[in-house]
Amino acid sequence: MFTIELKINGNHHKKIAISQPATIKSILEDNFNKEHTLIACKENNDYASFDKEIDYDTNLEAVSRSTTAGDAIYKNTSIFLLCKAFTSVFYNKKLVVEHSIGDGVYSEIINYTFSEDEVKQITKEFQNIIDSNIPIEKVELSTDEAKKIFLKQNREDLINHLTHNNIKLYKCGNYYDYMVGQLAENSNFVQKFEIIYHAPGIILRFPDKFSNDFKNSFLLSRKLFATHQEHDKWLSILGVHNVSAINTAVKKYKITELIQIEEALHEKKIIDIANQITLKNDTKIVLIAGPSSSGKTSFAKRLSIHLKVNGIRPYTLQMDDYFLPRIETPKKENGDLDFENIRALDLELLNDHLQKLLKGDEVELPKYNFIRGTREHSNRKLKLKKKEILLMEGIHGLNDELSSSVPFNQKLRIYVSALNNLNIDAHNRIPTTDSRKIRRIVRDYNYRGHSGEQTLEMWDSVRDGENKNIFPFQENADFMFNSILTYELGVLKKHILPILHAISEHSAHYTEAIRLWKIVEHIYNIQDDIVPTNSILREFIGGSVFNY
Fold this sequence. Notes:
Blueprint: E1 2-8, E2 11-18, E3 22-23, H1 24-31, E4 38-43, E5 46-47, E6 53-54, E7 58-64, H2 68-89, E8 96-101, E9 104-108, H3 116-131, E10 136-142, H4 143-152, E11 166-172, E12 175-177, E13 194-198, E14 201-205, H5 222-238, H6 243-251, H7 255-279, E15 285-289, H8 296-309, E16 313-318, H9 347-359, E17 363-369, E18 374-382, E19 388-393, E20 411-417, E21 423-425, E22 428-429, H10 432-447, H11 452-469, E23 479-482, H12 488-501, H13 510-520, H14 538-541
Parallel strand pairs: 1-7, 15-19, 15-20, 16-19, 20-23
Antiparallel strand pairs: 1-2, 3-6, 4-5, 4-7, 8-9, 9-14, 10-11, 11-12, 13-14, 17-18, 21-22
């Protein structure tokens, strides 16, 4: 007789006693309903095969598709199967998985345009793989064996990972690939997918993690896509599409030049935005919005400098001072106060002040007392003169409801995000979400006294707020600024690894810490002292010339 503690998605389910050895699959089938849509299982916080036989006391945690971890497994597996299907259709070309867009991920063949017929062939082969119920296995091969396989697949980009005597790969039928993220154990775990033809490449869509269906037809975020493509051109200028190129620059002592070029590209973009604001003489308000850890504050300070160079004096209006009294703050479904809701702001007072300022009237700015949860008199007066404008930074900047009293010709909206196009290799992208998450873990540890575990605990809530309050409005932006720095993971690596290593193997966030660790381990360390003091990266690692 042995005892098993069962969890689901981090929560205790039940404790059971079993007298005979049983597979994890049979244990889960006997104790969970099919409605849970399980996609993986952890044993003592490590992913374990459903076929593993249990005949001892242990802890098992079922992972459903509806969780962040389960959704990532579904997406990773879908990308893996897309690459397998692609290899069956194209024998001498390489698919590059580029970046997320909407509810999917964009991929292309460099210097090649897909035809509609080829997209149909890939879609058909993808469906055949799903219908064939092919096991997806973790295997360990020697370096020589792996090299032979990847050279046949035209995957020279993978050779850089073959630095150990043995390498762990995923195998599905006769197809092998190196994947950083966890995959499902069978091709039929991917029940739904959609491939959209978007010349020159394709977009692989993922169904909603709760309904496992597509909520609506695909709508391309054109401005966001164009910003991604712009960054791709930057990578071409820098000559870095994969992490191995950054590592080569480090080895050959060229990383300082690469950093200087990339920071200059940032500066050029900020100058261009400042110049366009200046040329638009009727602009009175500049609204800056973006998701967590996108570098909004540093961007706003650098933009202010260039506006001053152009003869414009910006005043920053603190959005937090316009919070409603705490007793009037909206609540989430679980009863917590929802400070990220636009209704948590006194929109009537804010728009009244904006109207008065635009007319040339003087207003007394409010001051919010966060301890008491009430507004107070600040005795700070503001009146806009000629060549003076307002800068407003906050998550709702792109939502027209925030500044409904301001005519469109008098305001400009800027979306700031860290849109990452740098890949580990052709099939392993580094998601924008992970870039921001790594930034935030380091910043929270350095400046807010938070452990890595505390930041990871909050992350899903942060993402929910972004999905509701930021991403639906990103196409409203007049300008988009990509704050990512392709070299930044090399700098952040030395900061984040001790924070991740401090997360206990018993923590609910241990597997996520390991996943992030696996991402940054691919890049060489880059010293802090060659990062410019006005860099956006300094907002997270410290040493900035700006006061935050």
